[in-house]
């Protein structure tokens, strides 16, 4: 059994990227894994101060929800980030969280596999490229980790707009195959 931490970064309730996160969680749970889904909606996550105290203390000096999520990520075997695509890039919420996960860098983190789930109004295959690249850049800092998979739900705008989108099945399968 693996510990799977799934972070939904959309500010909208029942968003399309959150639907992907829920599908991944369902697949992982059905495969017998422990899947925890955290939504950033309503959470307090301040910007990184760039003080680098976390590199020595292995914990951020800012005590907010990002600190709690970071502690959960430390012990997760699998990390999953779900984000809407805004202006062809990951959400600001995800970028802020990734910056705040800096205490993981010097730690003995457990995760090896990282997944990225994205949704956007546009449906061209290239739409999530910058978000994927940004997450890959974050992963590069963790030599034992790799981008294990991505799923993209394109052509959706309203929350829950397409409950039969093929990306939902793809996210579910990825969760089952963790």
Q: Which consecutive residue ranges, at least 5 long each, have pLDDT under 50?
A: none
Q: Helical content, roughly?
A: 25-40%
Q: Sum up the overall morphology in one term.
A: globular
Number of strands: 6
Order of helices and strands: EHEHHEEHEHEH
Count of discrete alpha- or pi-helical segments spanning 4 or more residues:
6
* Structural class by helix and strand composition: alpha/beta
Name the beta content range: 15-25%
Write down the domain tally. Answer: 1
- For the record, the CATH class is Alpha Beta
CATH superfamily: Flavodoxin domain
The chain-level mean pLDDT equals 97
Radius of gyration: 15 Å
Strand count, sense and closure of the main sheet?
6 strands, mixed
Verbal overview:
By secondary structure, the chain is of the alpha/beta class. The chain has a single domain, classed as 3-Layer(aba) Sandwich (Rossmann fold), CATH 3.40.50.360. Helix content is 34%, strand content 22%. Strands 1, 2, 3, 4, 5 and 6 form a 6-stranded mixed sheet that branches. The longest helix has 15 residues, at 16-30. The termini are close together. The mean pLDDT is 97.
How do you describe this structure in short?
This protein has a single domain, classed as Rossmann fold (3-Layer(aba) Sandwich).
